[in-house]
Amino acid sequence: MEYRVEELAGAAGMRVDTVRFYQARGLLPAPRREGRAAIYDESHLARLRRIRALKQDGFSLAQIERVLGPEASSGGEPLLQALVEESVGTRTLSRDELAREAGVPEALVRAAESMGILAPVAAFTSDESTAAGGDSARFTEADLELARAGLAILEAGIPLTALLEPTSAHVRNTEVVCEQAIDLFDEFVRKSGPAADNADAISAVFRSVLPQVTKVVALHFQRTLVNRALGRLEAGEADPALEAALAAADAGRLEVEWR
Fold it and tell me: Which of 18, 61, 145, 155 is the most exposed place for a label (fewest CB within 10 A)?
């Protein structure tokens, strides 16, 4: 199928100016010319949709250029390729959609966002933002699950104000640990070891290690929380209600799921 630029922009859900901007940046191949008319085809539409998906998954234009540029066909940057492979295709939601599907007020979403609990992926370009309705913030399904879990905690009777301090500490500590984890992956997987400089191997390692790291962190937190609670019981610092709650939870059989 062939498109004029207006038709291509409409099919891709973008403004004409955005299409021309991507073409000027070299992200979109030049169209075929028929006299003064520019003719685009399905490959151009597929490229625009891929650019949009990458943008929604948090990649900057500079990173997208490296992913889609000529070097990408020869392997490109393996770690970036692995991140793309893991991320692209995730459904994204606007702030309003996130609040509605999670069943929480949008004000609560904004509060969680300001604390770093919920993190929008990179915004669209200004043109795309306007075409999408003006709100450029997009969230992933992971944010949706976080919001739902947070609501469950609040519904248990714990006030939001009481959660602020431990939540802020968790966010700060997690950011530090994640930076260290990225450094480890970069040094011992991307730069050295059996998978070094092999895009397919690095992607495979990334995809296999990510859920395991997530499971280690979640299980360690769960075990530590339960052990600390049991410790309080043994020290006589808690009433029988906590003991009953721990027994009912049957903590030893709790499982951590990874999508």
Answer: 155
Could you state, in order of their start, the residue ranges of all structural domains in the chain?
5-76, 90-158, 164-259
Assigned CATH for 5-76: 1.10.1660.10
Report residue 93: phi and psi, to 5°.
-130, 150
E-assigned strand segments in the chain: 32-34, 37-39, 92-93, 139-140
3-state secondary structure of 236: coil
pLDDT of residue 249: 59
Contact at 8 Å (CB) between 25 and 65?
Answer: yes
Whether the pLDDT of residue 57 is over 50: the answer is yes
pTM: 0.65
What tokens does 170 get? 């968790």
What phi and psi, each to the nearest 5 degrees, are found at residue 173?
-65, -40
